[in-house]
Structures are given as structure tokens and as C-alpha cells.
Amino acid sequence: MLRSLARLVFLAPALTSVFVCALPDISVVVDGPSSVNNVQLFKVSSTITNHGDEVITLLNSSDSVLTPKWKTNAFSVVSQGSGLAARFAGVKPETYYLSSAKIKWSPELAVGSGDVTVIPAGKSITIDQNLGGVYDLSGIGEGPYEISANANFFALDASGSAHALRATKTKSHVTHISGEPTSVRRRALEKRAIGYNNCTDSQKAILTMAAKCKVLLFIAQ
Hints:
The chain has helices at residues 2-22, 107-113, 184-193, 201-213; strands spanning 26-31, 35-36, 43-50, 56-59, 75-79, 87-88, 95-98, 101-104, 116-119, 124-130, 135-136, 143-149, 152-156, 162-166, 169-171, 173-177. By secondary structure, it is of the alpha+beta class. The strands form six sheets. The chain has a four-stranded mixed β-sheet, with no helix packed on it. Strands 2-16-12-5 form a four-stranded mixed β-sheet, with no helix packed on it.
């Protein structure tokens, strides 16, 4: 009995190290310019690093930095002066538009379509994103803003099943924003809505109504 217990005690550290090494371990670091004098140039980059010993497969979830073209709420933009968070003015995380079709994102859909990002062990990927118009700063004003990325992801395990994964390390970035801190995306769309080019009278009426209602549209790029 004592010999069996001694053997288990001897094996315990080795088994623990095996399980620790197998756990996914990622970090997310946000970087960008120290200052921005045009909201339209409000750009950042997010670097995801796989600190584990195995390849990791992340789903391109709609509310993560892995889907920059979807203009979803993948960041937190907070004024260091007032502590207020910029209002999100993009597309709701659960829904986006592709080829005029409204699609609701889900882990099952992403797995089935192979919409994933693979990061080898010890490697990193960097994703650039333009936040101009995605976050409305007009109610806060100029000053330093701290930008943090959403640390929540979905990863595939060895069986191909998706499970939630949170980055163990994160680093935010501070950018001083000056100029006219407003939602460039909204203003650009409103301006486009009242510009007529080879439109019929009925089409002009629709465009004018959309401009008055300040409808935010998402156009897949």
C-alpha cells in the first residue's frame, strides 16, 4: 500500500506538468500610434500570441479582433480623462450582413464553415483594424483614450468541439485623439445617402428618408 502511494506521489508532478502544458495559453496586445488627429485614421493593431506547446485553432467569432471587417464591438475605448466609454456605433456582435443577407454568428456555424484562425505554438499573428466610426467619441471629446481588446475567444479542442477561451495576458494601448472626435462612419454614410447619382424620384425619396432617420448600415467589404 505504501509503495503504491509513493508511486502516485512520484508520478503526480509529471502528470501535472503534462496537463499544464496542454492548456491553451494566449495573449492579446493592442498597439497603435501615440496620437491621432483625425478620427478617420483611428487605427490599431492586435497581436495574438500562442504561448502554448501545441497549435491552437481559434474561431473567427464576431465580437473578437479576428473579424476586423465586420466592424463589431471587439474593443473597449475609454477616456482616461473622464473615465467614460466611447459609444459603440458599429454592428451588433451577434449579427452581420454578407451579400445583403442577414446572418447570425454561432460557434457551430463557424466550425461547419471552417471559419477559423490557426496559430502555431510559440507564434503570433497581428490584425489591423480601423476603429474610425465604429466608436463614437462625440460625447466625450479630445484627450487620451485607452483601447483594450476583447479577451474572450472560442477555440477548438482535439475532438473538433468549440469551447470558450480567455486570453491569460492582455495589454491595452493609449492614444491621444484630437480633431473632431465624432463618428466618421455615421457622417460618411449620411453624406452618401443624400448624394444622388442616376436615381429615380422614388429612389431619391428613400435615400432622403434614410438620411433623416440616420440609419446605420453595415456594408461587408
